[in-house]
């Protein structure tokens, strides 16, 4: 359903289970960055009224998720750690060339966002099915549904604002590129790395 070309190695869950505090901190910042992305799309493309409306809701939802993850951290007697660099996102953002029209830039941002949400959804599914912590398994199962909706929303907007055939080709090319990135990731206690 997600179109990902390379699934996460299930052994990644073993790394997560040994580093729950680290994964929760990384996850909290992922939610905060997702809210920031929504806000940046509003700021960058205010004339796209439908996009602005959806991104307003998304920013609220993502900050709600941030709060939920933060509550999990506090409940376990921890504090939110420092933000880490997201190697996955840094490498992913190198795919599309810089420059181009505003519309092209928008489509690229939307495709990046769709893919990040798709990979998050896949990771949440894996955690919901494989993690031995029943509370976290349920938590990630609930978040997985939300992430799937985000992925399809971003893809829908990319197709709306760009040429459908070109957008679909770019999406497939981005998925192929992401699969090559994933060959070297999944070995750290981070949501995408």
UniProtKB/TrEMBL annotation:
GO molecular function annotation: tRNA 2-(methylsulfanyl)-N(6)-isopentenyladenosine(37) hydroxylase activity
Identification of the protein by name: tRNA-(Ms[2]io[6]A)-hydroxylase
Natural source organism: Flagellimonas meridianipacifica
InterPro entries, per database record: Ferritin-like, Ferritin-like_SF, tRNA-Hydrxlase_MiaE
Domain of life: Bacteria
Taxon lineage: Bacteria, Pseudomonadati, Bacteroidota, Flavobacteriia, Flavobacteriales
Annotated GO biological process: tRNA modification
């Amino acid at each position: 359903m997600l179109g990902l070309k390379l699934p996460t190695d299930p052994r990644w869950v073993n790394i997560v289970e040994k580093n729950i505090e680290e994964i929760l901190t990384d996850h909290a910042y992922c939610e905060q960055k997702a809210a920031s992305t929504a806000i940046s799309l509003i700021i960058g493309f205010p004339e796209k009224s439908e996009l602005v409306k959806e991104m307003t809701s998304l920013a609220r939802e993502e900050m709600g998720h941030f709060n939920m993850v933060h509550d999990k951290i506090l409940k376990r007697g921890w504090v939110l750690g420092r933000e880490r660099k997201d190697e996955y996102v840094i490498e992913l953002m190198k795919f599309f060339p810089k420059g181009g029209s505003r519309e092209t830039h928008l489509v690229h941002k939307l495709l990046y966002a769709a893919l990040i949400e798709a990979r998050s959804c896949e990771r949440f599914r894996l955690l919901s099915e494989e993690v031995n912590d029943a509370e976290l398994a349920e938590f990630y199962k609930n978040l997985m549904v939300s992430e799937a909706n985000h992925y399809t929303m971003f893809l829908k907007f990319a197709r709306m604002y760009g040429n459908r055939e070109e957008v679909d080709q770019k999406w497939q090319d981005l998925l192929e590129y992401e699969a090559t990135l994933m060959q070297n990731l999944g070995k750290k206690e981070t949501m995408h790395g």
